[in-house]
Specification:
Blueprint: E1 3-11, E2 14-21, E3 29-33, H1 45-48, E4 56-60, H2 79-93, E5 98-103, H3 105-116, E6 121-127, H4 153-158, H5 169-176, E7 180-185, H6 193-201, E8 207-211, H7 218-221, H8 223-234, E9 242-245, E10 249-253, E11 279-287, E12 293-302, E13 306-313, H9 322-335, E14 342-345, H10 350-358, E15 362-369, E16 372-378
Parallel strand pairs: 3-4, 3-5, 5-6, 6-7, 7-8
Antiparallel strand pairs: 1-2, 2-4, 9-10, 10-11, 11-12, 12-13, 14-16, 15-16
Length: 382
Amino acid sequence: MLTESLVAVSADPRVELLVAQSPGPAGRALLVIHGGPDGDHTYLRDPLSELAGQYRLVLPDLRGCGGPARGLPIGCCTPDAAVAGLLALLDELGLADVDLLGFSCGGLLAQRLAVTAPSRVRRLIIASSSIGPVPDGGFADRLPAVKFSSDWMAPWRAGNLPPAHVPAAAQRLALLGVPVLLLHGEHDMTTPAAAITRAAARIPGATAVIIGGAGHMAHIDQPTRWLAAITRFLEPADGGEWLAVTPRLGLRRLRASDAAALPDIAEPAWFAPQAGGATLSPWAIVRRDSGLVAGYCGLLLRPARGVTLGYAITAGQRGQGFAAEAAGALLAWAEQRHPGVYASIRPPNPASERVLQKIGMRLTASYTDGDGVRNVYRRRPG
């Protein structure tokens, strides 16, 4: 059911990933990131291969792992480089977005991919991992089939391998609006199960499933229950795509394909991976009566300044109050997850001032950046 091929994800240096795939609909692709990170994907094939056909399975070996992508320079085997390679893989396979499963250390890379490019992730499964750093465990029965490498060990021994964990991961995942499943064995010795339930409590909407009678390799210890939890999670309830709903609008996560409907306002930064520790959660503003994408809005978490909201309505949909309706719903959703949400505008901007006042935000401060003065509006004291 799974066929293997080499996919080039970098030209300099040349990196080709070995990728095992199954047939299946592109709209139901499941990208699986293995742990280690110095092993390969093979120990996860069973039981995931049972989903082949129902889902398009994509199981790559990470750079520096498995077979072909070995012997790379030290600086090429880092968490950020691994995520960049996975995003390039999605581009090469023509997958605009995927459901994402990360196992063990792969769970940390999955979190990093989600906060870097949230528009590429429909749902996120963090299996036998944690919201933070976690070492890998053992799986003796499958060791003979795993192709181990030492490419990731070289930078670790040199003391310059960046940590895989995502800073402030729970806070950043909460702002994305991406459905999250934390799937864990009750007896996992790498991270206590109690830590997983606590992490889920910090991410509104996240689900924790603790599998009894299972350790770190829960998919081996209890394959039927492990796979059943994944299948339930990947089958959303009706209306599950909406993050917020108003009388006239539905707000859902922004897709790469939405750019075509927003030619006059689409900014590349809203559709591109984020860097520098920032987390962008972009949403599409959709008219419920017609399904038309009327604009976009979103939240940007900057480590130094907090969470700011933004919005834009396409020219043909302005003058109908959609901006205030969408911004109000976005603000209410965000304030449940972060206490200090603000908006900043460059004066004079009377239209934006009216929108912010309609949703209860007031001018509280001003600051100067490289382009001039910006006014800060808040609904709650900062």
